[in-house]
Structure prediction request, 87 residues.
Amino acid sequence: MFRMAEDVVGLLRLNLDWKGTMHLARLLISSCCYAGIFELRREDEDDTFSPYYIVKKDKSLVLPERPTDTQVGRPFPKWKNLDDGNG
Prediction:
């Protein structure tokens, strides 16, 4: 939605700072949800701390799998190159 807000700011030649563009993005999200184009869904409906996701009205919430190759308890290795084995 922020990208859409930036496009609107450019098309209408508005002089908005970052905060104003963020408020415009929030207005666009609210308008699209109120119009029934999008809706907010939680990843886990039973968890009150679960984040909301913006989903098209007739689509289901499909999230990518969570990474399993994270390091816990070990320091991050020093960089040797601009990219690692994962790209």
Notes: The mean pLDDT is 84. The two ends are 28 Å apart (CA to CA). The CA atoms of residues 42 and 51 lie 6 Å apart. The beta strands are 38-42, 52-56.
